[in-house]
């Protein structure tokens, strides 16, 4: 049986060869996982909201151009933060500090359109993501 045909063997080999543990203790891992899930959800909501805003801009509602672009950027940052936090990467705190700030900006912009369901959902996801990022960052200090 080759390592190629047995992913478990590859993982086991990496664990044996890796000089440092791949995962932090369970408490840190749990905070990172919670953060990663919030970031992934936010990335999806921001991508959806960006598409929604694009349609609005194409319909002549140019005031949505700003949120369209903010949501695109926020989705990209959140997706990256989800990956890094999910693997408990050494730059998780750094990317999540940026992610929380991006979510603050994007969420605030989307809140300026309270009657729009897509934008309200995006604003909530941004708020939840920023909170989860900050909780993970705080927990990582201990």
Quick description:
The protein is 77% helix and 0% strand. The chain is mostly helical and 142 residues long.
Topology:
Blueprint: H1 7-17, H2 26-58, H3 65-86, H4 92-111, H5 117-140
Kindly list the characteristics that best describe this protein.
single chain; 142 residues; mainly alpha; Substrate Binding Domain Of Dnak, Chain:A, Domain 2; 5 helices; 0% strand; disordered N terminus
Round the Cα radius of gyration to an integer and report it.
18 Å
CATH T-level fold name: Substrate Binding Domain Of Dnak, Chain:A, Domain 2
* CATH class value: Mainly Alpha
Strand/helix succession: HHHHH
As residue ranges, the low-confidence spans are 1-5, 10-24
Shape: elongated
**Tell me about the biggest sheet?**
none
Mean pLDDT, all residues: 86
User: Helical residue percent?
Assistant: over 70%
Strand content: under 5%
Total count of strands: 0
Account of the protein in words:
The chain is an all-alpha fold and 142 residues long. It has one domain: Substrate Binding Domain Of Dnak, Chain:A, Domain 2 (Up-down Bundle), CATH 1.20.1270. The chain has five helices and no strands. It is elongated. The protein starts with 6 loop residues before the first helix and ends with a helix. The relative contact order is 0.16. The N terminus is likely disordered.
């Amino acid at each position: 049986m080759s390592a190629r045909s047995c992913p478990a063997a590859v993982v086991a080999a990496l664990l044996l060869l890796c000089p440092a543990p791949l995962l932090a203790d369970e408490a840190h891992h749990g905070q990172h996982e919670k953060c990663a899930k919030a970031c992934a959800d936010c990335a999806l909501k921001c991508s959806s909201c960006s598409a929604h805003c694009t349609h609005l801009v194409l319909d002549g509602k140019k005031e949505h151009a700003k949120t369209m672009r903010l949501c695109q950027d926020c989705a990209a940052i959140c997706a990256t933060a989800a990956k890094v936090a999910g693997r408990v990467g050494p730059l998780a705190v750094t990317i999540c500090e940026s992610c929380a700030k991006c979510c603050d900006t994007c969420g605030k912009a989307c809140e300026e359109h309270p009657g729009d369901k897509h934008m309200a959902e995006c604003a909530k996801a941004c708020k939840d993501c920023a909170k989860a990022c900050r909780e993970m960052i705080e927990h990582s200090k201990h």
